[in-house]
Amino acid sequence: MEDTEHYFLDPVTAGKRQMARQNMRDRIADAYLCLLTKNETVTVDKIIRKANISRATYFRYFSSRDDIVVYKLIRMWENYASLHQVKSPDTFDPENAYSFFEYVYCNRDVRRMLISTSKLNVSYEAFARVYGVRSRADYHSIFYGIGLWAVVDAWERRGYQESIEDMVRIIQDASIR
Fold first, then answer.
1. Per residue in 13-31, pLDDT tens?
2. Residues with Cβ < 8 Å from 51, sequence gap 6 or more?
3. Mean of the per-residue pLDDT values for the chain?
4. Is the separation of the CB atoms in 76 and 153 below 8 Å?
């Protein structure tokens, strides 16, 4: 029923429900990330206590803790892209390269936390969803997606020695070759 219920609601009510769902997802995700930063084992029970929700509510919104990370990373990018008026937030191209690297740099603490909790691989899923790697047969997107992902990983491992502008030039130079 929930999938079809929006057909029977006026746009204002439907919008309010959508906002309430998004707020609940954000609440759960924020509770999980807060617990992750404490470098302890995070269980569903800890998440629901921190978010002050029921187990049923948790599983209504997420099927796993990895899904929470993917959701939160996508939301963080969407918020950043909206705030900074990124022209094509779902496509990596030279026009938004600076915004992308600035976003990565501004959120480096989140990335480090994901590395320390062995969740970095999950963030590739969010990256792939944002940049349209939707199919295993989409070789072009996979090639650039994984390549860009590897560049960001190397930048992290080098301690962000290069500036954002340097990273944009590196990607643009690689794209020309």
1. 667 788 888 899 999 999 9
2. 27, 28, 30, 31, 32, 58
3. 83
4. no
pLDDT at 172: 82
Q: Measuring CA to CA, which residue among 65, 48, 49, 66 is closest to residue 57?
A: 48
Question: Which of 11, 10, 49 minimizes the C-alpha distance to 32?
Answer: 49
Joined together, the tokens standing for residue 14 give: 């439907």
Question: What does the radius of gyration of the chain's CA atoms come to, in whole angstroms?
Answer: 18
- Say if pTM beats, i.e. exceeds, 0.90: no
Looking at domain 1-63, its CATH architecture is Orthogonal Bundle (1.10)
pLDDT in tens, 137-176: 667 767 777 788 888 889 998 999 999 999 999 888 876 6
88-104 per-residue burial string, b: 16 or more CB within 10 A, e: under 16? ebeebeeebbebbbbbb
Within 13 Å and on the Cβ side, how many CA atoms surround 105? 18
Count CB neighbours of 39 within 10 A. Answer: 10
Site of tokens 């906002």: 19
Q: Are 74 and 130 in contact (CB under 8 A)?
A: yes
Collapsing DSSP to helix, strand or coil, 129 comes out as: helix
Residues with Cβ within 8 Å of 165's Cβ and at least 6 positions away in sequence, in order, are 98
